[in-house]
Amino acid sequence: MRIGAIDIGTNSMRLLIADYEDGNLLNREKFVNTTRIGEGVDKKGYISQEAIQRNIDGLIDFNRMCKDRKCEKVYCIGTSALRDSKNGDDFIQLAKNKADIDVEIISGKEESTLGFIGVAEGLTDRLKEEESILVLDIGGGSTEFILGNLKGIKFNKSENIGAVRMTEKFLKADPISEEEFKSMIRFIEEQINDTIEFLKNKKIDKVVGIGGTITSISAINQELETYSMEKIHNSSVDIEEVEKILQNLKKMTLNDKKNLKGLQPKRADIITSGVKILQIIMKKIEIKNIIVSEYDNLEGLICRKSQKMS
Q1: In this record, what's one Pfam family (predicted)?
Q2: Distances in Å between the alpha carbon of 251 and those of 61, 88, 255, 279?
């Protein structure tokens, strides 16, 4: 069965089209549209009319692609920005009326669970059943921490720190001002302190990263001219490489970042805060290396929905 899965994230809307056969995902295709539904939500509490229009247009486009590729089912989830906005229900109604898409706003916990299912699906050969895995998903509006093994999830927590949210809240100057940067660091550390303290005392065998920040770091690290799912998936990044990228980004103007090899220009304004979130987490939990997974909550969504149907 061919299935479409859409994730309306704070920064970007993503579509996965795949065939689900006998418990396996085949012929995966992924598409991204930087629709930034979360623009201003943290400050104003509402999705702006411009952001609503961008995202409705994006949904119409993605639904057309699903029809062209003969998807039998299309599932759509909304995450951090839709959870936090006061007019999320208005958007859901418009999505149904204008784009013929049913949007399900999911909790941070459910988002974490789908991400973990996706990782387990994509890294089956690399993960052992008893291994303790920490999955980090640094998104635009939130960061998910998920600890578990192939038998199930033991702990998950969604924290309201994300690349878009932190950039809007703190980083106004170009290039970045040291004072603003330090304020952002203090805020991030305060927000995630309890989660970090909890995880420090847990056995963690492997750390896996999903989401736009970590895939961008891998692409920058590999200096990819063109984004490649194959080259990103199962790649790994060391803490030293993360810190080197961070130091370079801090010195760059926005225009420099837009021309940086491996980085999508539309992510240039938010990448520095995303990399800093990852660096803080890796340093505090003493993570030396992180595996990058191209399988994430979209794959998790298709697996979960398909298993419920069978």
Answers
A1: Ppx-GppA
A2: 37, 37, 12, 17
Q: Quick one: which of 22, 26, 34 has its CA closest to 61?
A: 34
d(CA 161, CA 192): 8
pLDDT tens digits for 119-168?
A: 999 998 888 888 999 999 999 999 999 999 999 999 999 999 999 999 99
Do residues 38 and 164 make contact, with C-beta atoms less than 8 angstroms apart? yes
Residues 6+ apart with CB under 8 A from 42: 84, 141, 165, 168, 169
CATH of 126-292, one of 3.30.420.150, 3.40.980.10, 3.40.50.150, 3.40.50.11190: 3.30.420.150
Which residue has 């304004």 as its token pair?
Answer: 269
Question: Where are the CATH 3.30.420.40 domain residues in the chain?
Answer: 2-108
**Using CA atoms, how far apart are residues 146 and 105, in angstroms rounded to an integer?**
19
User: pLDDT for 180-235, tens place per residue?
Assistant: 999 999 999 999 999 999 999 999 999 999 999 999 999 999 999 999 999 999 99
Is 273 in contact with 184 (CB distance < 8 Å)?
Answer: yes
- Looking up tokens 């549209």 gives 33
- Kindly report the pTM of this predicted structure: 0.96
Does the bond joining 175 to the residue before it have cis omega, within 30 degrees of 0? yes
Number of helices (H), then strands (E), belonging to the chain: the values are 13, 11
Which residues, other chains included, contact 144 with Cβ-Cβ below 8 Å and sequence gap of 6+? 108, 111, 112, 115, 135, 136, 137, 156, 157, 158, 159
Phi-psi region of 233 (alpha: psi -120 to 50; beta: other; left: phi over 0): beta
Q: Which fold has domain 2-108?
A: Nucleotidyltransferase; domain 5 (3.30.420)
Residues of the chain with CATH 3.30.420.150: 126-292
